[in-house]
Amino acid sequence: DLANRMAEKAADLVKALFKMGMMVTINQTIDQDTAELLVTEFGHNIQRVNDSDVDIDTASDVDADATLKPRAPVVTIMGHVDHGKTSLLDALRGTDVVRGEAGGITQHIGAYQIKTKGGDYITFLDTPGHEAFTEMRMRGANVTDIVILVVAADDGLMPQTVEAINHTKAAGVPMIVAITKSDKPEANPQKIRERLLEHEVIVEEMSGDVQDVEVSAKTGMGLDTLIEKILLQAELLELKANPDRAAEATVIEAKLDKGKGPLATVLVRRGTLKVGDIFVVGTQSGRVRAMLDDKGRQVKAAGPSLPVEVLGIGGVPMAGDTLTVVENEGRAREVAAYRQEKATAKRTTSAPTSVDTMFSALKAKENVIEYPVVIKADVQGSTEAIVNALTRLSTDEIKVRVLNSGVGAITEGDVTLAQATGAPIIGFNVRPNAKARELIERNKVRLKYHDVIYQLTDEIAREMAGELGPER
Ligand code: GDP
User: Fold this and answer.
1) I need a labelling partner for 109 at 20 to 30 A (CA). Which of 43, 169, 321, 397 fits?
2) For residue 215, which atom of ligand 1 is closest to its CA?
3) To 10 degrees, what angle do helices 85-94 and 223-237 make?
4) Interstrand relation of 111-115 and 146-152 (parallel, antiparallel or unpaired)
5) 301-302 vs 175-180, strand pairing mode
């Protein structure tokens, strides 16, 4: 690339680098200082290209106070498995007065918004659990304003409850405790309030400042109070955004639909997203062809805190990516191309650049065992969460190597890849297609189905420990 831009022969550049003591190959990425030295060596002028010259800089683009208007709070429900997160989400969805009137069909797009009896709006993220929450946060997407911590009145504090508390605290997001299944005769909410003290969650009844409410998804008990408490918390937070500007939204989840192409549910952070808007999202660009809300209705415009499914993206973006509306297609393509180039460069920069480092890298490699995997999941968010969770299992001795990761059914391609390297295929809420299944059986490729991330990571961690052998 550099040779091309200077209209020089690539081989000459490599030769020059060898003379400088750098053993490089033709498509290796070199650092900026080396590139500058090389450009001067060849008698050309240096022109620095910064991120801010090409990419969109949203951080410095702050809205004036006068433009800000109140927006609906965005709520995430977390808690231990089986404590009633899904039931609560469904019950809260049922309180939506709009849905009551129009009798809309529920579309699971990853988030939904309700209109309360009092006319206020609340947005709920529809993927319960803290994995998605933490994954989004790791990608710099803090979309949640309020966390509802679900604890079953008949069960008490469990490992995932504690994890959820820790994740919420780490994010600095206010929490409301919902004591679920309070209709059950064996419910003991007081015990839960006391146990929460051990984790420095002091609810109002214990003269703390964390709101708590006893609810039942089964009888509807406490739902109105919960909604009131969410609105009260939202008021304290003074949530505001400027609706009258080019839209900026966060991808909640994304997938490839056979008929409709790439789809992404986005949550508008500021501005108003309109049909026809041209945008960049992660390394993809596109134009809003249509938008659907969680009731399956077409919407022409989406303002702050409204989740919508967007059609018209060039490829599947990643959960946590920011969608930014830009002035024209040329700009959208330029930014997307620049980001793609940067992403590719990042993947190849780890190559050693001098003989010494090259040898030490080789040596290190000899002692490292690789654990290869192929990952397929139903939605992009899960794929990413799994890749990140597994990558974190890597140690100095054994490294997880993701050969391929993607969204959709397990295909022949996945099987061949796994077979060639002895890797297992991980199917998260997805199954192989007929051809792939045949290949899997014929070649005895290992297939692992999972639908809970931590169970998957536990299993892989055990296998990795086994690979290392007992002597370590
Ligand atoms: P999740 O794993 O946290 O999403 O939990 P679910 O919503 O799937 O609920 C787990 C089980 O608890 C299901 O069998 C529900 O029917 C039951 N459940 C959830 N909420 C309530 C409730 O308020 N009262 C009663 N009696 N059962 C509930």
Assistant:
1) 169
2) 23
3) 90
4) unpaired
5) unpaired
State the distance from the centre of ligand 1 to the C-alpha of 160, rounded, in angstroms: 16
- Give the pairing type, strands 284-292 and 261-270: unpaired
pTM: 0.69
**pLDDT string in tens for the chain (472-residue length):** 788 888 889 899 989 988 888 888 887 778 778 888 888 889 888 876 677 677 887 777 889 999 999 999 999 999 998 999 999 999 999 888 877 665 566 778 889 999 999 999 999 998 766 767 777 776 677 899 999 999 999 998 998 898 889 888 878 899 999 999 999 999 999 999 999 999 999 999 888 999 999 999 999 999 999 999 999 999 999 999 999 999 999 999 998 888 888 999 999 999 999 999 999 999 999 999 999 999 889 999 999 999 999 999 999 998 889 999 999 998 899 899 888 887 776 655 444 444 444 444 444 555 677 888 999 998 888 888 899 889 888 887 888 888 888 888 898 888 887 887 788 999 998 889 888 898 898 888 899 998 888 889 888 988 888 777 654 4
**Per-residue DSSP letters for 296-361?**
S-B-SEE-TT-EEEEEEESS---TTPEEEE-S-HHHHHHHHHHHHHHHHHHHHTTS--SHHHHHHH
Q: Whose CA is nearest to atom 19 of ligand 1?
A: 84
ipTM reported for the complex, 2 dp: 0.99
DSSP structure class, residue 443: H
Ligand 1 mean position to 88 CA, how many Å? 8
Cα 116 to ligand 1 centre (Å) = 23
The tokens for 378 are 């139903």
Ligand 1 pocket list (CB less than 6 A): 81-87, 128, 180-181, 183-184, 216-218
SS3 of 163-226: HHHHHHHHHCCCEEEEEECCCCCCCCHHHHHHHHHCCCCCEHHHCCCEEEEECCCCCCCCHHHH
Which residue matches tokens 């391609």?
413
Nearest ligand 1 atom to the CA of 219 is: 23
Residue 322 marked as a ligand binder: no
- Which of 78, 80, 81, 82 for a ligand 1 pocket mutation test, highest count of atoms within 8 Å of Cβ? 82
